[in-house]
Amino acid sequence: MIPEFELWVKASNIDKMSKGACPLCHQWYMVAYILAENKLASFKVITVPENCPPKILKDKSTSGLFPVVVGITGETTLGSVEDFVADESSELEAFFDSFKCPLLSMNSPGQTVALDCFIDLYRVFNLFLKSNTEKLRDKLNNVMKRIDTHLKENGTKFLDRDVLTYADCVLLPRLQHVRIAGKIYVDYEIPAENKYLYRYLLSAYATDAFRDTCPSDPVIINHYQKKAQKQGVEATLMKETTTFHIPDYIDLTFDEEEDETTQEQDDMQQLSDQIDSVVVDSTPNGDAASEHEAEANGDDTDDAASASSAPTAEELIANGDVSSNVTEDKYEGELVEIPAVVETGEMKSVRDEMPEQEGTQISENGSAVTAE
Q1: Which domain CATH number covers 218?
Q2: 3-state DSSP assignment of residue 104
Q3: pTM, to two decimals
Q4: Could you read off the pLDDT of 143-191 as tens digits, one per residue?
Q5: Coil, helix or strand for 9?
Q6: Are residues 12 and 25 in the same domain?
Q7: Looking at the structure, do residues 301 and 172 belong to the same domain, yes or no?
Q8: Do 26 and 134 fall within a single domain?
Q9: Per residue in 238-292, pLDDT tens?
Q10: Residues 209-225 as b or e (16 or more Cβ within 10 Å = b)
Q11: What is the residue range of 219's domain?
Q12: Domain boundary among 313, 328, 362
């Protein structure tokens, strides 16, 4: 029997229910997801309001740190995971390393080089948000160039291999924050010249491990409201969308020997465009976003009004534009019907599998959260 555990992560500051924007929580969520994809573990993810954790969690972890791993059953190289609790960084690293998944090896030479190429990314980004200067903008651009150069020289789809590894789980959550929050607060976009980096993002956006664990754009923006120099951004009024595409003006033209890879990226962009055309309406009455919400999100009113006529995921599947498939539940290993396109990236099967616990309730998106 494969080991089972719970992963407690910070909830969104907006609704206190959906997954939050903590990059460390997202990092370990991706790691756990990859373990489950490779049938090495089974886990449940539980979202928790940071300032109001349930008693059941406080009894197990008193540090106040997130994420928290709570072992349920099974064994790893550490021994039995039953009642095992990890919340410190060193404990989390030891726990996930004990599964001995080759993709998640943290200290291999390839991982060391990959991690080093963006070691100062998040520090520079946070400084840039607090002090919007050209010097810090240049420093952030230099980090992007280092990542781009690494990808070009390595010749792989991701940082170390052609599949996601541990280094990608560290980089991608933070890179997504740079794209989403950076654009809103300091008008920052990754320079277009970094085409290998943009190709990397497209590759990541096509993976379940990133899409299903990624918080929405408003949640990411809200995460930095008190940290950024620019104030007055109302993320709570923004439409519930998640960016899984790159700008249209990015030229992904490569040398002849890379034609095959380029075609694959074109296919990814086409799929991403189809996915982003699916509107998941979060308003109670099912109407399109209001003019006020559209303005807060930077959209034209006409664009918001036309959103209601966009095809649904089911319509895309019925028309043959996107195929339907049977996807294995990455948490419990049971086969469930999940449309190939799910814009919000939420795992739809968690709700049925997760038992309610004292002090928690099950939200509509399947996550367990603290009852108010």
Answers
A1: 1.20.1050.10
A2: helix
A3: 0.71
A4: 999 999 999 999 999 999 999 999 999 999 999 999 999 999 999 999 9
A5: strand
A6: yes
A7: yes
A8: no
A9: 778 999 999 999 999 887 555 455 556 556 656 655 555 443 333 333 333 333 3
A10: bbbbbbbbbbbbbbbbb
A11: 109-313
A12: 313
